[in-house]
Amino acid sequence: MPVPTLARMRLAVCSSKGGVGKTTTAANLAAALGRRGRVLAVDVDPQDSLGRAFGVIAKSKDDSLAALLEDPLADPRAVVRHDVAPGVDLLPAHPELETTAAYLASTGGLTTSVRRVLRPLLDGYDHVVLDTRGDLGALTLAAVCAADTVLTVFTSDPGSALGAARVAAFLEQHRAYENTTAVLIGVACASWDQHGRAAREVAGALAGTDLPVLTTRVPMSRRVPTSTLSKRPVVLSSPTSPVATAYVALADEVVHAAERVTS
Amino acid sequence: MSVTDQATARPMRTRTLRDDLLDDLRQAAPMPAAQPAREVSVPVPVEPARGPEAPTVDIAVTPRFWWGLRMKTLSEGPGVVIGAGPVRISLTGFRR
């Protein structure tokens, strides 16, 4: 089967709210995109959940993004974990990232730090997927600064929809400040409760905004937490399941949206 | 409330919930971004050329502070203050 040529995309998955499925989405998008090209998954969350989704745990700060942010002379290639899934390499986080970020913020080096670390790595990958923490703080800004596109996710929780709207406002503001050129390419439902009234209301309200709501809805599924336990994204652990199929469709939709805005 | 009433009331309630959320989203979603403050040249008011200072009379009523009948000259320039009971009159701007 011919491998489609994909535009290079540096995608940050963001929300101002935690627990809405950012990491699961980032992990599954990376796994889905890894089937068609080389992907670097970057964990920019001190909770190091993206690495754990692939069974990768940095034993110390030195094995993680935190060390690279702190030391401009460090070689990022030495920290990247190769082939954590087919086509996927991973730059893991470590809880010490919290302290490193606070230090860099105090010295003025945080905003551009992730971009600086990733620059020498970009040539080796078709896509970069960055997972962020559940806020719109300085570390998330550093991730967005390294990205050219942003995806945000929502669930049946109205707060998650507000989180998506806040991501859009956050991006507008930091584009105006020239901290980033990243564009919001999608607002995706990461846990679609097809029989739930709240889900319909939230999706309906989002459709009434100018936000770029994506058509793919990832169905709510028990397979997702099970896949986290097994340390393999559901796209790999249950590839024929409806939820895995939806993540693959979401990856396609995201790539097409990115091509539209970056070409 | 009858069953029929409930049935008719429900869609309206649904619409209201969605509208409320939509309002919240529109409030949170991008508005014209706050632009970094730009330096704006503010015209500096030109003070009118001052001629010889005109005498000024200020009358203040100080109901909580009563003055005994007295008169004093101002240390900061030509002027005089006359106080009597709750009234204070100051005369400034005249040449001695």
Radius of gyration of chain A: 17 Å
Q: Order of strands across the widest beta sheet of chain A?
A: 3-4-2-5-1-6-7-8
Total count of strands of chain B: 4
Mean pLDDT over all positions of chain A: 94
Largest interface between protein chains, with number of residues from each side: A-B, 23 and 17 residues
Order the strands across the largest sheet of chain B as they lie in space: 1-4-3-2
Kindly state the percentage of residues in helix of chain A.
Answer: 40-55%
How much strand of chain B?
A: 25-35%
As an assembly, this protein is: heterodimer
Rounded to the nearest angstrom, the radius of gyration of chain B is 33 Å
Structural class based on helices, strands and sheet pairing of chain B = alpha+beta
By DSSP (H or I, 4+ residues per run), the number of helices of chain B equals 1
Which percent range fits the helix content of chain B? 25-40%
Mean pLDDT value of chain B: 62
- The number of distinct β-strands of chain A equals 8
**So what's the overall shape of chain A?**
globular
Question: Which residue ranges of chain A are poorly predicted, with pLDDT under 50 across at least 5 consecutive positions?
Answer: 1-5
